[in-house]
Amino acid sequence: MAKLQEPKYVSWNGKLIGWKDATLQIDCEGVKRGLNVFEGIKGYWHDDGNFGIIQLEKHFKRFEQSAKMLYIPFDWSYEKFRDCVFTLMRELLIPEKDMWMRTTLFAVEGHWGVDTKADMVMTAFNHPKELPSPINLGISTWQRSIDASLPYRIKAGTNYQVGRLARIEGRQKNCQEMILLNRWGRVAEATGSCLLMVRNNQIITPPAYEGALESITVDLVESIAKSMGMDFIRRPIDRTELMIADELAICGTLAELVPIKSIEGMEIDPQGPLLGKLRKQFFDIVRGRLEHPSLELEFVPLTTKV
Ligand code: PMP
């Protein structure tokens, strides 16, 4: 596996600092209990040399909501958040790569929810422009927790422990991504993305209450699919439906739309007609080649073009 990137700068409470200086005190709740909430944000180069971040305000709102649900105080305005994203991206963008950014609120003070204070940390990584190849998908024996235990609606670092276990399990059978079922044995989501399934010419995804993060990408993809005249519905998905699906893909900010070539070792056509067409349209839209009313773009002000 490729070594993880160590970018030159990190944004810490709005100031740029060196990667090696971006550390947390070992006794804070952010470290001791993994208390943090985060967002993954994506931006793409457009053909005209502009760099557009997609759905940024939607990510900001979900970030605020995650913090609220975990009683982590956060009072930044959207404008402040956006400007800090711009500043870091401007430093780290290179023309050959798109960019994926993580914005994280780490609890640095407080104890058991009393006097919690958090630091706002942003890290950004160069991301290949090439479309990822189809992957093998497995079904994990680990389950997505329910709302009353570890709420999947909160994008918190701790929610990803079960995803880590599922990925370890998946690696043993050559699966790059794994489905987490919910407690009722139906599809919740993948470890870091949602699932799209095609059956009988309908694109189907489980509703968030089945155990999925309220995905910003799925909302966008739904809107694109509908504007292309495709049927897109949200309903529970049984495990066995995955085995007889016509097409499958995973969908999320980082995953974008990755086709699936096998599910639990059973082959499935990764070039299926519906998701293939949708994927092409998605990339034309996020890369600014086609306009779409559901796409929100924030352009990074590039003083000197990268
Ligand atoms: N589920 C999980 C567990 C995720 O980590 C992600 C990625 N953020 C998603 C779903 C997809 O959400 P979004 O489209 O908002 O990135």
Describe the 3D structure.
The protein has seven helices and 16 strands. Strand 13 (about 245-250) and strand 14 form a beta hairpin. With about 300 residues, the chain is α+β, with helices and mostly antiparallel strands. The chain has helices at about 30, 55-70, 80-90, 160-170, 215-225, 240-245, 275-285, and strands at about 10, 15-20, 35-45, 50-55, 100-110, 115-125, 135-145, 175-180, 185-190, 195-200, 200-205, 230-235, 245-250, 255-265, 265, 295-300. The protein is globular. The strands form two sheets. Strands 7, 8, 9, 10, 11, 12, 13, 14 and 15 form a nine-stranded mixed β-sheet that branches. The chain folds into two domains: about 10-125, D-amino Acid Aminotransferase, Chain A, domain 1, CATH 3.30.470.10; about 135-285, D-amino Acid Aminotransferase, Chain A, domain 2. The structure holds 4'-deoxy-4'-aminopyridoxal-5'-phosphate. 4'-deoxy-4'-aminopyridoxal-5'-phosphate binds next to helix 5.
